């Protein structure tokens, strides 16, 4: 993942940051507000290491999974839909419903929004 993902969705990364660095404080993370240099300095201070070591730790952390809050972000979804267009046949729209798969009308609507009877 790129730092731009982190910066754009800073608060969504709090849980992943605290999982990696349990001593991290949400109030301090609020102050950093996605600033990469500030985060490197904070991690260096937190781990009592050199900034170069903290930068390497962060680089390894960035190689991990993107938090679900970010993956489920509408901007990410729209990007994923656009990328899926290479798997959609010519003349079809990647945003069309999936009625051709046969599951849209499987359950009658009983008003409870679960799709089940």
How does the SSE layout of this entry go?
Elements: H1 3-8, H2 14-20, H3 26-32, H4 36-47, H5 51-62, H6 68-71, H7 74-84
Helix pairs in contact: 4-5
In short, what is this structure?
By secondary structure, the protein is mainly α. Helix content is 50%, strand content 0%.
Record keyword descriptors for this entry.
elongated; mainly alpha; 117 residues; 7 helices; Protein Yjbj, Chain: A
Explain what the structure shows.
It contains 7 helices and no strands. With 117 residues, the protein is mainly α. The chain has a domain of 67 residues: Protein Yjbj, Chain: A (Orthogonal Bundle). Helix 4 crosses helix 5. It is elongated and about 60 Å long.
Residues in helix, %: 40-55%
Order of helices and strands: HHHHHHH
| Overall mean confidence score, pLDDT | 78
Looking at how many chains there are and whether they match, the oligomeric state comes to single chain
Largest sheet: none
First-to-last CA distance: 42 Å
Number of strands: 0
Number of alpha- plus pi-helical segments: 7
- Please compute the radius of gyration using only Cα atoms: 21 Å
Structural class: mainly alpha
So, CATH architecture of the domain at 3-69? Orthogonal Bundle
Flag low-confidence runs. Answer: none
Strand content: under 5%
